[in-house]
Amino acid sequence: MANSHAAPRASLFRKYFRALFAAVVVPLLIAGGIEAWFGYHDQRARLNDLLDAEARMAAVKIQDFIEGIRDQLGWTVLLPWSENTSDRRRLDTSRLLRQVPAIESLTLVDPDGIERLFVSRIGLNRIDSGRDLSFTPAVIGARSQGVWFGPVTFHGGSEPFLTMAVSGNRSAVGVAVADVNLKFIRDVISEIRVGETGEAFVLDWPGRLIAHPDINLVLRADQAAQQPLQELREAIRAQPGEATAGRDISGRSVLAAMAQIPGVDWSIIVKQPLAEAFGPIYAALWRTGIVLIAGAILAAALAYWLTQRMVGPIRVLEDGVARIGAGQFDHRINLTTSDEFEHLATRFNEMAGELSVSQERSERIGRLRRFLAPQVAELVDRTGENGLLDARRVEVVAVFCDLRNFTAFSANANPESVMGVLDEYYDALERVVGAHEATLISFSGDGAMVLVNAPVPCPDPALRAVNMACDMQRSVQTLLVRWRALDQRLGFGVGLAMGPATVGRIGSEGRLHYNAIGNVVNLASRLCSSAENSEVLVDSVAAAAVGSRVSLVDLGTRTMKGFDQPVPVFAAVVDRIPLTQI
Amino acid sequence: MRRRDFIALAGSVAALTIPAGAQASPVIGYLGSETPERYSSRLAAFREGLAQLGYVEGRNVNIEFRWGEGRYNDLPALAKELAARNVTMIVAAGGAEVALAAKSATTKIPIVFEMGGDPVALRVVDSLSRPGGNLTGVSSLSVEVSRKRLEFLQEVRQGRNVFAVAINPTSPTSGSQLKNLYAAADSLGLELIVLKAHSEEEFNGMFTAVTEMRAGGLVFSSDPYFAYRSPQLAALAVRHAVPAITQSRDFPIAGGLMSYGGDFNQSHRQSGIYAGRVLKGEKTSDMPVQHVTKVELYINLKAAAQLGVSFPPSLLTSADGVIE
Fold first, then answer.
1. Which domain holds residue B193?
2. pTM for this one?
3. What is the CATH number of the domain that holds B158?
4. What was the ipTM of the complex prediction?
């Protein structure tokens, strides 16, 4: 009993949890998945635009830096060399170096391509050195295009420099060539912030790093270390207009976009760590995850609560059903949950009531069956007792029978054969009594008493009783044929008498008997005692009631104990009395 | 029983606290060639740089100082002393001598140097971009621009073609600077008188010689020994009425005529930043030698007026600081 309590409770919890989990978590999972999917695509599109805009803006800033230097250089190529303006030029160049710290040295070239003035922060200044620079790429480039940018060179293998040449608006003003220290772009590049921690860096045309917020990376000029940045640029070039995922110099995953800086043909790349770029997505996923866990916990808690709510009434029901099953039909299951459980409890209670009624009924039938024929008992039960067994005075036929010489037989024979004989004997009598719908009042030893017309009245009780007595004789005689093998002296006699008697229940509740009391009972008993083997003795009243329907033989009168007058006795002729067989 | 428990508990607490305490304060061994007083402005810049990385002396970093007090020959021994104290790192600030002394002392303890001159030429490092070994640092352009000093002084003293040059013969850069200066004098068409001084006692004689030899002025080569004694040199220049130019702005500020050289504030601050980065765990071999690109020109108009000289307009416009 204890085992069957625990196991189903666990499975109930599991079922509830599964159902609630499906109800709570699965929709969340689907919603979270959809959110993440669309969120990712929105964020990706947003990042494309954002990084693209950042790259363009950064490019503009770098361009401004270069344009600023170009504009400053432009001031030095305003005056034609034909005029005597050397002092003015010295002043201009001094001012330029002061204003533009990135310019390390400046060369002014006249229309013939001859170096006229060289001013440097480090080296010695040169005035009218007369060097012919007309065939240098800087002078040729500036003359043809107005502005010329040289390749980036790394001084001492470390510091990036750019040579830049600007020509004036007419050939007479010559060309200015400046060496620009690109370390100064650092001030510009450090200010560019993409999101929280995103940065920008600049690669020149061959892919060398020339500007990075960490100037050390530039100064190290380590081509191998810069390989990832070049790969990143190639990846962006492969997918133009889209932010591309890749790795930066420290191996971090980044999302990057690129813009070209015209003129110098550099690429500026803005990058944002992937973790930050997709931060909102990760945050959403985290939120979904937490909600999912919370949902699972909620489902478990709900399942537990529901299970506990179920288990209480179920245990009450279980207990109640067990008690009712054990026969305690007056037990009532007390549940006031105002739900199906209460309904079920009410049904159980009703069942217990019906079982109680049914048991009473079967007990009653059992009681009736003890002395009524089964079909009579059923009938009585169906129609109701209605005082049938109450005491009253009616006209009955009392039938007595017993075995002759049984006492002597039972004293000598072994107990098995005695009981075997009695079993067969009672069985035969009961069958006959049942067939005639008479009432078997009692067996006592080898004798039996049967009543006809009480407690259930029947038509023509005398005839019925005589026929029954003859049948008894016939069936017992058949048995006797065999029993004589055991004892030669065994025999069977029947006596019956008709008359008024008091009938009813006699005895305590526990040992209830139905019995008849009256002279007729005594007479029938005496007649039985008086009967020889195979005889059926009938009194005068019964004989008169039967009339000629059964052949009776008048045996005259016999004196009987307890009767003052000799009593007339008739014998019913039993067909085929197996005397001939003896 | 109880006492044993207590001892066990106390032991475990001690075990927990000791490494935490040791981790909290790294020790910087700071090697300087002079005295704390002469270094005070440099030290302030250095601490500023350290603070930029979040290090404050006494709070999360300790600094062990060793001062050469002008005796440059003592520097290698002082550096070895620091190395023997097993400091977390060594900062060798204030010149090539200090850097070389530190380099000779250890090949394991990271060193951040601060110096003028080319660290590759002086064999402090193999390469600027990838110094290799256990040292890196900051280099200013002071040494490279000593020839510019001659040029500027010549511009002030138009018409004079003999100039005196002050050299510290013990400086590792003296040879290269002298070569540069001779080349510059050649291209400028000037004649040089080389005056050597490696102690304070020789300063006075140097200025007397300039006056006696009727040189147009005195150009100081880049040398920390001179730079840290700018006030003395300025006083002598004023007393002897000698137009002179040195590398350090302290000189015109103290009454000298002019200076042209690297910005020591910037270079010492940068050395502080580098020291902080090393403390943070960066490898010196990954840190390129930083050039402080800024070269500053300071002029003193009052001194010029007293000397009866005038600055050409081009110098006036390009001066980063003018003392009036």
1. 146-261+296-323
2. 0.65
3. 3.40.50.2300
4. 0.83
